[in-house]
Design goal:
Elements: H1 2-6, E1 22-27, H2 33-38, E2 44-48, H3 65-78, E3 84-87, H4 113-119, H5 121-134, E4 140-144, H6 150-169, E5 180-184, H7 187-190, H8 193-199, E6 202-205, H9 207-215, H10 233-249, E7 253-255, H11 266-271, E8 276-279, H12 284-292, H13 296-307, H14 312-322
Parallel strand pairs: 1-2, 1-8, 2-3, 3-4, 4-5, 5-6, 6-7
The structure holds phosphoenolpyruvate and magnesium ion.
GO cellular component, one term: cytoplasm
Enzyme class: transferase
EC number: 2.7.3.9
Length: 325
């Protein structure tokens, strides 16, 4: 089975009816890039930059601008001209780092990700400069986690402009057109997409957090793990609404949460109109195998029926049947 999949590395990711699909890799370190290329990735859809900040030796609490720049540059060079989407620091809750205090009773609802970065603008500017500098060496996109409010987007864009101005003053080269996008992973964001579409150039759905926040279940709490259901009708609604709204506006949209790498979900997401999937490199070829055997002419009407089905067992059965269509 692995050997058979290995043969798909160079096979175009195109459905039976001729629709091309983009397959991207989620990485944690630049050293993951060779595995992404091995899986035939068209690029990196999610570089989780917080891993450069986690589990560090005590004497070097934070990676500085040059150290971060070296990592981002290494990734973009390793990907040989394919786009690399770098997500800015997403710390707090399930991704703790040593140098910040974690005292909140509800860390998932606390000062995490972009909220933390906007509260620590010097740290954020350091990361933004490092990413901008790396953009002189290959195509980079900037992805912002956990946005919900218009003013957060605006403050983030203003800080990016400030980082650019600082680099221009030093005569440092960077991509002036660096695309900036948002993770859609808070239900409020999925329900207020025009705010994002107006201000940003692409979107990426983080199903891991979108499920956590929609169903009000802590994604790392084993006692509620049985309630973590990607097929809950509310999740299917938010996914299809987000994908359709972005497509209608002509804004590129991907899914980079675990759902994108789960072959049981591939056809459902295709049927909703998703054409960009980002996943762990080990899952790329299995998902491609699903895609090249999928016929949208059959899957799209079946998906529309699933979206009108609210009963959990009927939904689960219908999603399972999608796989044998
Ligand atoms: C997500 O929330 O779905 C996601 C892709 O990001 P993370 O798992 O790193 O929070
Ligand atoms: Mg997330």
């Amino acid at each position: 089975e692995r050997k058979k999949l290995g043969k798909l590395k160079k096979t175009p990711a195109v459905t039976i009816d001729g629709t091309p699909v983009t397959l991207l890799a989620n990485i944690e370190f630049p050293d993951d890039c060779p595995q992404a290329l091995d899986g035939g990735a068209h690029g990196v859809g999610l570089f989780r930059s917080e891993f450069l900040f986690m589990n560090r030796p005590a004497e070097s609490a934070l990676p500085g601008e040059d150290e971060q720049f070296a990592s981002y540059k290494q990734a973009v060079i390793a990907m040989k001209g394919r786009p690399v989407t770098i997500r800015t620091l997403d710390i707090g809750a399930d991704k703790p780092i040593d140098f910040i205090e974690h005292t909140s009773l509800n860390p998932a609802l606390g000062l995490r990700a972009i909220r933390f970065c906007l509260a620590e603008p010097q740290m954020f500017l350091t990361q933004l400069r490092a990413i901008l500098r790396a953009s002189a060496f290959g195509p980079i996109k900037l992805l912002i986690p956990m946005l919900a409010h218009a003013f957060e987007i605006d403050q983030t864009l203003a800080l990016i402009e400030q980082a650019k101005a600082q680099l221009r003053k030093q005569n440092v080269k960077f991509d002036e057109q660096l695309p900036v996008g948002a993770m859609i992973e808070i239900p409020a964001a999925a329900l207020a997409l025009p705010l994002f579409i107006k201000r940003l150039s692409f979107l990426s759905i983080g199903t891991n957090d979108l499920i956590q926040y929609t169903l009000a279940i802590d994604r790392v709490d084993h006692e509620v793990a049985h309630l973590y259901n990607p097929l809950h009708p509310s999740i299917l609604f938010l996914l299809s609404h987000t994908i359709a709204t972005a497509a209608k506006a002509g804004v590129p949209i991907s899914v980079c949460g675990e759902m994108a790498g789960d072959t049981r979900m591939t056809r459902l997401l295709l049927g909703m109109g998703l054409r960009e999937f980002s996943m762990h490199p080990a899952q790329l070829l299995s998902v491609k195998n699903e895609i090249i055997n999928s016929d949208l002419g059959v899957i799209e009407p079946a998906t529309r029926r699933i979206l009108r089905t609210y009963e959990p067992t009927a939904v689960a059965d219908a999603v399972e049947r999608l796989q044998v269509l």
